[in-house]
Each structure stands twice: as structure tokens, then as C-alpha cells.
Design goal:
Strand order of the largest sheet: 8-7-6-9-10-11-12
CATH architecture of the largest domain: 3-Layer(aba) Sandwich
Distance between the termini: 28 Å
Radius of gyration: 21 Å
Structural class: alpha/beta
Largest sheet: 7 strands, parallel
Number of strands: 12
Bound molecules: 1,4-dihydronicotinamide adenine dinucleotide
CATH topology of the largest domain: Rossmann fold
CATH class of the largest domain: Alpha Beta
Shape: globular
Helix content: 25-40%
Length: 342
């Protein structure tokens, strides 16, 4: 079995290489998958991609014609794959859970860094500047956090927030019966939250769920956290909200136009994206480059599940983690037919 990896970084190679054998051969490419690079998968049975690769209809056709039959996402989100178009051509599998703790903990790390000005203090004390001016933060205890999306990551984040003594309001299109939070409509979540954190997938419904209109409904000084997908937030509306002082702070691990920028070293270069450059220049914006997943535990789980997924499809023609385009669920699909409701 030959697997072509796209958008590969050294840490990917490290976690996958231990699964290489005479039966499983890896071809690692640094380039992202798109219509121009798909040719590199010639002779491969499977293609393994990450969050910023493109698997639209044209790429799927190209891969199919090259003989590729498995598209394995080494991540949870799959908004970059036309899953519906792939049906009947290429099996699409993903890693539904590898460490919700990694992402939820990074979200809280960003929140604490921002509101306690740790990023500022770190630079000051490195320069032997021990002044406290401008470093006043606020307590999380007693504050209200609005969580959009109460799946695996959202639930861990809720638990962490409850540990801080925060009140949790939540919105989910499919509320869970046993979630430790009060479900409310989005309007109320926007109106009452001091902090809002996004943990839902990017879908046509959630695209720009944070836009000028929703920002206008929020409390002045609200802190926005996005460790989910960039396009949940209209970046220009966010920038306007920050400039008008409506938004108190933003912590972004993802960005709408991240695909050509994140994971690469642009130091010493001029970045063309004015919105990102302006956001980064703001004292109350913290950006990490899609790093929330990056823990040893998560990388190990991603590699193991991805290889298991590919083997399952290769050997049995189906996998628990095969994506269903209809409901987005896999193992718990109510109308399952080989774990697919189509
Ligand atoms: P999950 O599938 O366990 O939970 C997603 C939740 O969102 C579900 O409860 C679902 O009902 C809800 N949802 C679906 N449509 C919605 C809508 N229209 N409005 C509100 N809620 C809706 O997914 P998980 O594992 O918690 O991951 C959440 C997201 O985090 C992923 O979709 C992915 O985009 C992102 N992610 C980011 C990572 C990073 O490194 N920054 C790493 C892993 C995931």
C-alpha cells in the first residue's frame, strides 16, 4: 500500500514513520494538495491530507483517474473536502477525535494569555522592564462564557471554564441531553456573554456566524475565541469591531484566509493580507497558526487512527471513521448503511 502525504511537516513524518513497513510505503510531500499537485499521487492507493489541502470535485476526479481510492484526513474538520462528490469514487476518512483536550486547553491558554496580558509581560521582563502599567486584566471567576458547539472540544472547554467558576451558556444545533451547561438561542448567547468561544464545524450554516450583525448584538468588551475554523468569523467585521472598541480582545488559532499563510515561515517577507497584518498589529489580538492540536498525545493519536482508517478501508471496504456527507456523523449514524446515511 502506497500513501502520498501532502502538506507534510517534520512532526508529521516523525509520528507516521514508525508505521512504515514493506507493506506500507509513504511518500511525503511538503506541497499542499490542489489540482496542480494532485499528479504527485500517481501510483498511490491513498492520499493523506491536512486542514489546508484542497479536495474539491476537480481534485477528486484527478485522484480517482490516477487510481487513488482512499482520501484520509489526518484531522477532524473536513470542510476542505467535497465529501458528497467523493461518494462512489473515493472513500473519505477522518480522525474524529485525537485529543479534544489539546484544543480546549490551547483555547484556555490563549484566553488567559490575552486577559492577563502574559504576552506583554513576557516581553517586558525579558527586557528587564518590571512596570505593571497597562497590564491590568480581569478575573474569569463569575464571568459568563458563551460556547458555540458543544461536541468533544466544546464539552472539554466547558468543563475547564466551570473549573474557573464561570457561568456557561451554550448554543448547538443539536443540543446534548447531558451537557453541563444551559442551552440558549444565539441571540441570548451574544447578548449575555463576556467571552464567546467557537467550537462548531465550518458549514454553510456556520460560515461567518460572527459577522457585523452578530457583533452588534454582543456586550462591549467581549472577548472572542476561535480555535475552530477561520471562516466562522468575518475577519473584516472582526477588525471593525476591534477598531470601534466593541470587541475587547480576540484570540485566533485559525483565520479565514489562513491556507496560504499558516504553517509557513514568512518572517522577513511582506505579507500581502492587510486584514491579517492589521489584526496582528492590534495589542488585544493574539494569533497562533492553527497550533491548538499540536501536542505529542494528539500527533500520536492522529497517526494511529489515520493508519487504522486506511487499513480498514483497504482490507474491509469500510471504516467507522468514514465520512457521511448527509449528517456529518460516522459511528453513531442513525440511518447507517456501512456507516453512511446515503
Ligand atoms: P464535534 O463534531 O465533536 O462537535 C461539533 C459540535 O458542533 C457538535 O456538537 C455539533 O452538533 C455542533 N454543530 C454542528 N453544526 C452546528 C451549527 N450550525 N451551529 C452550532 N453548532 C453546530 O467536533 P469537535 O471535535 O469538538 O471539533 C470542533 C471543531 O474544532 C472542528 O469542526 C474543527 O473545525 C475544529 N478543530 C480545530 C483544531 C485546531 O487545531 N485548531 C483541531 C481539531 C478540531
Amino acid at each position: 500500500m502506497k500513501i502520498a502525504f501532502f502538506d507534510t511537516k517534520p512532526y508529521d513524518k516523525q509520528s507516521f514513520e514508525k508505521y512504515a513497513s514493506s507493506d506500507i510505503v509513504f511518500k511525503f510531500y511538503e506541497t499542499k494538495l490542489n489540482i496542480d499537485t494532485a499528479e504527485l499521487a500517481r501510483g498511490c492507493d491513498a492520499v493523506c491530507i491536512f486542514v489546508n489541502d484542497t479536495a474539491d470535485a476537480a481534485v477528486i476526479d484527478k485522484l480517482y483517474n490516477l487510481g487513488v481510492r482512499i482520501l484520509a484526513l489526518r484531522c477532524a474538520g473536513y470542510n476542505n473536502v467535497d465529501v458528497k462528490y467523493a461518494y462512489g469514487k473515493i472513500h473519505v476518512v477522518h480522525v474524529p477525535a485525537y485529543s479534544p483536550y489539546a484544543v480546549a486547553e490551547h483555547t484556555m491558554a490563549m484566553l488567559l494569555t490575552s486577559i492577563r496580558r502574559i504576552h506583554k509581560a513576557y516581553i517586558r521582563t525579558k527586557d528587564f522592564n518590571f512596570s505593571l502599567s497597562g497590564l491590568t486584566g480581569f478575573d474569569l471567576y463569575g464571568k459568563t462564557v458563551g460556547v458555540i458547539g458543544t461536541g468533544k472540544i466544546g464539552r472539554v472547554f466547558i468543563d475547564i471554564c466551570r473549573g474557573f467558576g464561570m457561568k456557561v451558556l451554550a448554543y448547538d444545533k443539536f443540543p446534548a441531553d447531558d451537557a453541563p451547561c444551559e442551552y440558549v438561542e444565539l441571540e441570548r448567547l451574544f447578548a449575555e456573554s463576556d467571552i464567546i468561544s467557537m467550537h462548531c464545524p465550518l458549514t454553510p450554516e456556520t460560515y461567518h456566524i460572527i459577522d457585523e450583525k452578530s457583533i452588534s448584538k454582543m456586550k462591549k468588551g467581549v472577548v472572542l475565541l476561535n480555535t475552530s475554523r477561520g471562516a466562522l468569523i468575518d475577519a473584516d467585521a472582526l477588525l471593525d469591531g476591534i477598531k470601534s472598541r466593541k470587541i475587547g480582545a480576540a484570540c485566533l488559532d485559525v483565520y479565514e484566509e489562513e491556507s496560504d499563510i499558516f504553517f509557513e515561515d514568512f518572517s522577513g517577507h511582506i505579507v500581502d493580507d492587510d486584514t491579517l497584518a492589521r489584526l496582528i498589529s492590534m495589542p488585544n489580538v493574539i494569533v497562533t497558526s492553527h497550533q491548538a492540536f499540536l501536542t505529542e498525545e494528539a500527533l500520536g493519536n492522529i497517526a494511529k487512527t489515520t493508519i487504522d482508517n486506511i487499513k480498514e478501508i483497504f482490507e474491509n471496504g469500510g471504516s467507522q471513521n468514514e465520512l457521511c456527507y448527509h449528517c456529518g456523523k460516522t459511528a453513531n449514524c442513525k440511518t447507517q448503511r456501512l456507516c453512511k446515511c446515503f
